[in-house]
Amino acid sequence: MADIVSPEVRSRMMSRIRGKDTKPELMLRKGLHALGFRYRLHARLPGRPDMVFPGLNAVLFVHGCCWHGHDCHLFRWPKSRDEFWRDKITGNIVRDRKSVDTLRSSGWRVGIVWECALKGRTRLPPTHVIQTCSSWLRSSKQSLEVAGSDETRPSV
User: Fold this and answer.
1) What global pTM score does this model have?
2) Could you tell me which of 128, 126, 134, 132 has the C-alpha nearest to residue 32?
């Protein structure tokens, strides 16, 4: 299926998609900061975590469901340039897993907040997401995954 906009318009649209300082990330940062958490942004660690809490040995990623291939209502495989997008998104998934494994083996605790937890029909109340992350940061649990539809999964 052909694209409905010109390549120039599509390029301009794609260039406006942010890689950092996204609305979900800013909302989470503001909420955690208000609770007293202090963090570093986009530190040079594997995967470039969105928030790094050095004193707590923890990192948080705020993943966009589309770019990171999350199995939720916000993700759909693009219909055009199928091979390109499958390679790109699959590569992102593989890189994410490798980054998480590297961080864990280096002693970091890793949390992932999916976009669908904060946006779309399965979103959770922002205070719930912030409180879940806050509780995890104060705990000794090694990992956390927060997704929409109350699919909050604390791990180990």
Assistant:
1) 0.83
2) 134
